[in-house]
Write a structure and sequence with these properties.
Structural class: mainly alpha
CATH superfamily: Tetratricopeptide repeat domain
Number of helices: 6
Order of helices and strands: HHHHHH
Shape: globular
Number of domains: 1
Strand content: under 5%
CATH topology: Serine Threonine Protein Phosphatase 5, Tetratricopeptide repeat
Amino acid sequence: MAGALADYNRAIELAPAAPLAYLNRAMIWRGRGDWAQAVADYDQTIALNPRHADAYCNRGLVRLRQGEEATAEKDFARCLELNGELKASLEQRIRETKAQMAAHTPR
C-alpha cells in the first residue's frame, strides 16, 4: 500500500486538479484507519467535483467511524441525491461499517 500511496501523492503533485487521485488516496488513508487524512482527501475530491456521489458516500462512512453520525447522514443524503442507484450498496456498507465498529467496541 505504501507504493500506491506514493503513486497517488505523485499523481496529485502532477495534476492537483484531478479529483480521482484524491478519492483514491482517501481510500488508502481509510484502509489504514487514518480518518482525518481520508476526510481531507474526500473534502478535496468534493471541492474539485461537487457532484461526485462516491466521495460523499465514502466521506460519510469515515465520519460514521469517527462518531459523527449527524454529519455522516448529511453526506449519505447528498450521495443519494446525486445518484439514487447507490442506495442498496450504501445501506449495505453502512451496515458493514456499524458491524465493524461494534466488533471493536470494548465491552
